[in-house]
Amino acid sequence: MVAALTDGTLPLAVTMAIGGLDAGVLNPILTTVVHEHVPEELRSRVSGVTTAGCEPAMPLGGLDAGLPADRAGLTAALLTLGGVYLLTRLSSLVFPSWRAMDVSGAGPGRPSGATRKRTPHPSAS
Questions:
Q1: Cα–Cα distance between 64 and 7 in angstroms, integer?
Q2: By the number of CB atoms within 10 A of the CB, which of 44, 74, 103, 119 ranks highest?
Q3: CB atoms within 10 A of CB 46
Q4: Coil vs helix vs strand at 71
């Protein structure tokens, strides 16, 4: 959206830096949620399916953005796709399933608020 609404590169660079920091914080949180909610015997499968689904889809984002930019113009495409992304990010405020991530150890087969015994990593000693 910033790219559509500004002419200079400084606002875009600042936005990209903030977005990069925001995305950099997200991966450890997602990994923690997977470790807390997915049973240990299924973690490698869940992580493998997640990676197998996400990694090949990444280059498609640039290709998918090209068609609207070609048809509607760059500014309209940036505003539209930025709006869709913003709504996607705000969906965590609407759907209660996102709030379950705040409960440590909550997951399938375990009561809400239940915590599992944490064992230290072998290299921690």
A1: 24
A2: 103
A3: 13
A4: helix
